[in-house]
Amino acid sequence: xxxxxxxxxxxxxxxxxxxxxxxxxxxxxxxxxxxxxxxxxxxxxxxxxxxxxxxxxxxxxxxxxxxxxxxxxxxxxxxxxxxxxxxxxxxxxxxxxxxxxxxxxxxxxxxxxxxxxxxxxxxxxxxxxxxxxxxxxxxxxxxxxxxxxxxxxxxxxxxxxxxxxxxxxxxxxxxxxxxxxxxxxxxxxxxxxxxxxxxxxxxxxxxxxxxxxxxxxxxxxxxxxxxxxxxxxxxxxxxxxxxxxxxxxxxxxxxxxxxxxxxxxxxxxxxxxxxxxxxxxxxxxxxxxxxxx
Amino acid sequence: xxxxxxxxxxxxxxxxxxxxxxxxxxxxxxxxxxxxxxxxxxxxxxxxxxxxxxxxxxxxxxxxxxxxxxxxxxxxxxxxxxxxxxxxxxxxxxxxxxxxxxxxxxxxxxxxxxxxxxxxxxxxxxxxxxxxxxxxxxxxxxxxxxxxxxxxxxxxxxxxxxxxxxxxxxxxxxxxxxxxxxxxxxxxxxxxxxxxxxxxxxxxxxxxxxxxxxxxxxxxxxxxxxxxxxxxxxxxxxxxxxxxxxxxxxxxxxxxxxxxxxxxxxxxxxxxxxxxxxxxxxxxxxxxxxxxxxxxxxxxxxxxxxxxxxxxxxxxxxxxxxxxxxxxxxxxxxxxxxxxxxxxxxxxxxxxxxxxxxxxxxxxxxxxxxxxxxxxxxxxxxxxxxxxxxxxxxxxxxxxxxxxxxxxxxxxxxxxxxxxxxxxxxxxxxxxxxxxxxxxxxxxxxxxxxxxxxxxxxxxxxxxxxxxxxxxxxxxxxxxxxxxxxxxxxxxxxxxxxxxxxxxxxxxxxxxxxxxxxxxxxxxxxxxxxxxxxxxxxxxxxxxxxxxxxxxxxxxxxxxxxxxxxxxxxxxxxxxxxxxxxxxxxxxxxxxxxx
Lengths: 293, 595
Hints:
Radius of gyration of chain A: 28 Å
Number of domains of chain A: 2
Number of helices of chain B: 16
Shape of chain B: rod-shaped
Order of helices and strands of chain A: HHHHHHHHHHHH
Oligomer: heterodimer
Strand content of chain A: under 5%
Number of helices of chain A: 12
Largest sheet of chain B: 7 strands, mixed
Largest sheet of chain A: none
Structural class of chain A: mainly alpha
Structural class of chain B: alpha+beta
Strand content of chain B: 5-15%
Largest interface: A-B, 70 and 68 residues
CATH architecture of the domain at 3-115 in chain B: Sandwich
Number of strands of chain A: 0
CATH class of the domain at 3-115 in chain B: Mainly Beta
Distance between the termini of chain B: 108 Å
Helix content of chain A: over 70%
Number of strands of chain B: 20
Helix content of chain B: 10-25%
CATH topology of the domain at 3-115 in chain B: Tumour Suppressor Smad4
Strand order of the largest sheet of chain B: 2-1-12-11-10-7-8
């Protein structure tokens, strides 16, 4: 380790304080307070401005909120570029992420007030809808990041992902040799179980934990249905059954892991493409307003 | 009991060399040193790494000698017990030890070096969703492309390739996808232009111009001369100035532009009325800036609005009518003697007469306002009073009967009347004693025959009859005021205005639920000089300003006034909603009026 005793004390303290403070609570919720203040001002201004005949994105207050909202959207989207570049201090990535979360939430208020609650089947409401999709998926992302990692480590029981895969491989090798005495039909069942791609499952199977056509389950069902032999016999089929059971247990752990990973990752598949589509819709929204000025 | 240790080595060309040896002990050791029972030449393995004990129960126990553990079925541990029948795979460094129990209780330990790293990073990535869904980047590009194409590229190219279409209702300009740009439906008045954005948005990136509005609204009048307007408005507030600086920087025409007051795309239905503050900003304190104005200050109908000033003829023979405030209890001289009270009485001779004629004329037991005042077709105002229709039923001008035909004087022509009465004596006719001419002498007194007939005077000389006709109780003088015009006998001209307010309008049909006498106290009026218009106080029992929460009818300026003159004063143009031809100029007052 490169740490030298007597090195800048302040730096180490800063490091320590930032170590145990997540981006949500960054600097005692500084950005939560700022975003809350922004929302409050926007709401008060909305009622104070008293736009007639009714609140409208095309009033002076509407344009003000719209400009703030558009700048915010672009800035929030820049996290995608900013996150690839880690720095410390006031503009640390953590501060940036904290601001991203809370200002993103404030955008709900700013964007909604900008609409003046006028919605329709047009590009303006499309931009608003995409913005809400992005924000809601972000809220989902924050909430799973807060809750699921615990479940993930709970499930792994001190096994790394590599160990899970290796354990499965070890079971598979034993299964392969244990299945040598089996007849063709039963050997095929074991081959099918061994050959099936552990990770070949799609989003639906992973999220719903419904693995239809799992060949390990099929093979296990075949061997488990035959209880004609006495317990403790050294029939190779009993050994295969025991190993298939082990395989299934290991597979279940891997699958639980995959499910939690999917829950953790799936929102980004909405958040990011919707953000880019939002930037396009925002451009169309602004250009169209001035094109038909 | 024996362990059978089977070592499988792979030569460089892939050939496997299998060596078997038996160890007849209860314990075997595993390590890098060559004196171990199982010697594993791998730096990742300790010199003495672990030992395997065969327990009395038939199980195997494996213990690590040092701090490094081993793997059992892929899981890293430092000690384990298991039954050899169930089989297991141990891992030490790059070596794998497969344990199995064959017949005769011999435990086989197969030692083999793993050929390569089993778990690649590729395999680990399988835990992630990557590759299971379309890539984020691909989806982002597709979304970006679709949105830009549909909502920007198509409408813009389509717009640029279509020349503007004339603003006619129901004609599409043919521009594709620009409906997706509309922030809201157009008002009823402009609904026909819904598919023709270019009717108003003529040039790209140019705000809607006044000239475009005026191309349809040709007859719109100016509110006041521009010089007066700018004085009346006074200097802008700092906030307004800032707003207009920004707006003008973005190409808006300025505070006087049509679109400043008339906002579109606010949803289907009638166009929203211009908010009161657009009026009250100037008119609330108009006299402080426009010192020569004759208009009173008005900021809110409920709290700051001058008394009504109807246009009246206030003196006999007046040529030009005059605006007078109702506060001064003005008198009106319309040239008639007409006591409303007498005509609306429920008990007097007029009521009896109405009862007598009820079958023929449709009157009730007494006269009612509507027996004389007939509403116009749209119900907003009343038709002019006509002597023949509205008075003639009782005030008959019959003066003679020849055979079975009645001779009637021509109303409105004094000369003709003179001629008719002078000629009466020349022709043979029934005498007064027959009861025709010898009618009543005064209203309410019946003639000898019991029929109500006007008395033109005794059947003496005609000139006397003419003179008597003009007397206050004569056939003409009963209602008219006799004068001499150019030395000839005449009556004072009658001016019954059909509207009194020149800068606003009043819709009677909107007030149908009220009785006439609620506002017009005709039943108490003994003289035709009474001005029966209600004062502002009467209106305020229902109508207060738009912000008055308690008001029965919150009313902004636009309910009764239009910003654009030319729409006021002329009764034919008073209520545009019902006079379609002029509707375009009166959008502001459409508010609250039924379809």
